[in-house]
Each structure stands twice: as C-alpha cells, then as structure tokens.
Amino acid sequence: MRVLWKQHKDAGTDTPFPRAPAQGFGRTRAEKGSRSHVEFRQSTLASHILVLWMMVGTLYACSDNGDGAHHTQARWIDRATLEDKVRGSWVGQMAGVAWGAPTEFLYLGRIIPEGEVPVWQREWINLAFIQDDIYVEIPFLDSMRKQGVNAGWDVFGDAFRDTRFPLWHANKAGRDNLRSGIQVPDSGHYSCNLHCDDIDWQIEADFVGSMCPGLVNEAVEIAWRVGHVMNYGDGVLGGVFLAAMHAASFFADSVNDIIEAGRAALPEGSRYRLVVDDVIGWHGQGLTWEETWQLLQNKWGTDDRCPDFDSGLQGSKNIDAKLNGAYVLTGLLYGNGDLEQSMRIAMRCGQDSDCNPSSVGGILGNWMGLSGIPEPFKKELQSCFRFLFTEYTLDDALVANLELAGQVMLMAGAAVEEGDGSEVWTVPVERGVQPPLLEQWATSPNTPPQLTAHVVSQNGMAIELEASATDEDGVLGYEWHFGDVSRAWGAHAVHHYTAPGTYEIIIYATDKTGNTSWQSIPVTVP
Fold first, then answer.
1. Rounded CA gap, 223 and 231, in Å?
2. Do 2 and 254 form a contact (C-beta atoms < 8 A)?
3. 36 vs 24: CA distance, rounded Å
4. Same structural domain for residues 242 and 360?
5. Are residues 235 and 104 part of one domain?
6. pLDDT (mean) for 4-11
C-alpha cells in the first residue's frame, strides 16, 4: 500500500538520505513511531469499501510517461494522521527553540563545542511559549482563521500592527512601519526596512507549510504573500524554503524528498538558492558537517546587511536568512532523520542557534508526527499555556491550523470522505514545484520596473488580465497571485475561480537584477 502515494522519481537509485521507517496501516493513535503512512480504520464494512475504492482509484490514477516510470496522481491522509503530523510540527519547533535558547548568538563564527551543548531538561519545552519563533505565527494564523486562507495584505498588516509582544529586527521594523502608516508590502521593502534580509519570516513560516499537506506550490504562494509584511528578497525566500519543506514532509518518503522540495521552491539565480546548492553539493562530496560548516563560513559567513550587527567582520553576529537557513539544511542533511541529532547539528553551527534547531525540529516533527517525537522532548508539555501576549494555547493553534489545512486542500482540488467517525482526504499530487519569481535586495542603487496592470475582461468566474513593465535592466518576468492560493506567470493571464468572493489579485514584475514592483487589483467574483 505504501506505493500508492509515494512519488517514484528516486526509484531504483541509492540515496544517502534517511527514509521513513516501514510500518503498516491501521495503527492506533496511542502507538508510537513514524506516521509516514496513511492510516485507515477498518472496523466497518463501509471502511473496507472505502479502502477498496482507493485501491481501484489508484490504478486509474497511475499513468506511464513512456519511459516506464509511473506517477501517482493522488495520495490519502486520514484525520488522525493529519492531526498527529501538525501537532508534531508545533512540538518539534517548540523543542528546538527551547533547547537552543541558552546558546543564541553566543557562538559567532565558530562551532559550539560538543561539551558546551546544553543538556536538555524536559520542563524547558514550556519556555517556547515566550519565544518569538512561535508567538509571531499566531496573529497570521488567527487572521486566516477569521478571514480565510485568501486574506489579503491589509488583513495581515492590521493584525501584525496591533500585536503587543516584543519584536526585533525585520519584525520590529515591519511593525513600526505599519504603525506609522506604511502598508504591506512596503512595510517589508528594503526602501523602508533595512532588516529585510534578516531571518524573521524564515523562523515564523512553519505554520504555512503545516496547513498545506503535500501542497508545496500552495505553501510557496502563501509564504510569499505573508512574508512581505516584514521581509523582502532573501528574507521572504527563507520563509518560502521552510514552508515548502514542511508541506512536502506530510508525504515525503525521505529527508531527501523534503529538502528537494525546499530547493525547488527557490528561484534560480537567487543568493538563497546558491547557498542551498553549495551545502547540498558539499554534502554530496562526502564532507563532514564540520567541513561543510567551514566552507559556509569562508564563503558566506560575513554576508549580512543587518544594520544592528557588525556585518562584514569575521566572527561577528550574522542574522541573515540564507546563512542561518544553510545551518538548518546542514542539520537536516547530516542528522540522518534523527530528530535529536539533527537539531543538535543545527544548533552547533552557531549564530541564531535557537531558531535554527527550531526550524529543523518543526520539519522533522511534521514528517514523523508527534507520535514519532522522542518522549523527552514532549513529556512535560503543557498545552493549556498561552503563547506570549496572545489568546492562543497550543491546542487553539492546532485547531486553527487544521481548519486552514482543510481550506487549502479543498481549494487545491482535494476531496474528503467521512465515515466511521473519521475522515480521509484525497490530496492531488503536484507535477513539480514552481518557485516565485526572482526577488533580491539590490547591492547597489537600482530603479525597479515601471509596472501597470489591468483587468481586460471578466465573465462570471473567469477573468482575463494584462500587465506591462519596462526597466533599464530588462524585464525578467511577471507573476500573478490570484488570492485563492494559485499563481500564473507571464504578462497575460486568464484565471477561473471556483468560488464566489472578493479576491486580492497581486501582480509582480521583476527586472534582471531581481528588483521587483507590484500592483494590487481587487476583484469581486459573483
């Protein structure tokens, strides 16, 4: 049955990456271990029929592309497994940030010695309720719960503006901008926010991937849209990278699958993609993680434009999204699928050494589910505690996350079958990941494209749009966000909505340096 949802692009090849442990169907929620497989309750005749229907459907869902490779068109996940994975994502984040908190920015340009890694204390897990890695997710989660997944920039901006929790770097600059009347996405743009390449959105985008089970392109769209509240360029791409890996982890058969989804979500030519390719290449050469770390330090260690840190100096603080994202990747690559070891490596890389193991813990927690997280990292968790300066407990966040996951799956064309007190989702398989267009904070003054866009025609739920841009560097491309988690590329676009409502269409244009312009077009679909 495992083959029913596995994507076979790696079939027949050896891989150095860890794979999910092979376990069968029908385990109870109390049983421990990885929930990488879809579970079915077969206690009634109806559930037997449902399983038979899925097996038959799979035969019709497979096609041969002429080279003998079959590509599954749908995957299934039941409610219990979905909940276990989403809960595992949140608890994994919390464990990572709490474990690394005593080391944050104390180890600069050097590896944390093994003997100086904090010894995990079980009660530390509850310190995560006061960590910005987690509580900054809540206003965005709450906004979408109230307004829907298609909430626009004004909704996100208002929610973030009105928060009371302490913030730093891009988050603080973004909120200050909003409070002074600068709206999204200018609140995160480099012209108004000199922290735009900092790590902030990268450490907060976990929930986006957790509400997109197996739907990497939808995770990319949402992460791009929300990330511009406080970041730009590489700062936004950090959130895209993390959200894509989270989304892939629901059905991934190996850590390699997870990483490849994140890599594919990064536009070629971006500095973030270059860093990721470097780390993957060095790992592929058989280097140790310490050797990979040293090469990273030599090439990227002083690449940080944060105005609060002494960037450009060896051994200085570096809060740049892509370097710290490379430490997350290092933990995933060299941790062999082991949660504790992966978080330990990401932490020992130094710099933002609580955020990075938190990102690793969230992704692997999503992959293995709460049931697969070792007992010491979850035993003392108090789900009734509230995240700092919010009304949300962990259970509240999980309920919201699961509700939004249902919305996203339906918008992406998934179907749900209910019966026997549970539900089973049929989730379509995407035919490749589409990265966002290239966006980079220019290293020297550069004029963004001059962009205009308009609605050509609208007929019921169908809309036709046209854009035009000019730039002295040349226009590289256009990207449309239709407000329903879907995108399109090119100056001309035709889109068919599947539900009535008011949507915020966003059109981006980028020049050949990665400098972008945008325009928002509200539309009402009858």
1. 11
2. no
3. 10
4. yes
5. yes
6. 30
CA–CA distance, 278 with 303 (Å, rounded to integer): 15
| In contact, 170 and 205? CB cutoff 8 Å | no
Per DSSP, the three-state class of 164 is coil
Best mean pLDDT range from 37-46, 180-189, 415-424: 180-189
Q: Are residues 359 and 480 in the same domain?
A: no
Measure the CA–CA gap between 390 and 360, rounded to whole angstroms.
25
Burial of 10 (0-12, 13-18, 19+ CB in 10 A): middle
Q: What is the pLDDT of residue 311?
A: 67
CATH number at residue 306: 1.10.4080.10
C-alpha span between 308 and 317 (Å, rounded): 9
Write the DSSP symbol of residue 371.
G
- Give yes or no: residues 331 and 244 share one domain: yes
Instruction: Give a yes or no: residue 14 inside a domain.
Output: yes
Are both 99 and 32 inside the same structural domain?
no
pLDDT 10s digits, 400-455:
999 999 999 999 999 999 877 789 999 999 989 999 999 999 999 999 999 999 99
pLDDT at 285: 98
The Cα 147–Cα 150 span in angstroms is: 7
Helix (H) or strand (E) holding 427: strand 422-428
Considering the domain architecture, whether residues 71 and 129 belong to the same structural domain is answered as no
Q: Is residue 215 part of a domain?
A: yes
Considering the domain architecture, whether residues 361 and 293 belong to the same structural domain is answered as yes
Furthest CA-CA distance within the chain: 68
pLDDT digits (tens, 9 = 90+) for 378-397: 999 999 999 999 999 999 99
- pLDDT at position 478 over 50: yes
Q: Is residue 329 part of a domain?
A: yes
Do residues 214 and 245 share a domain?
Answer: yes
* pTM for the full predicted model: 0.88
Domain extent for 278:
81-403
Q: Is residue 222 a part of any domain in this protein?
A: yes
**Vertex 171: Cα angle to 184 and 316 (nearest 5):** 135
Q: What are 287's two structure tokens?
A: 């280097």
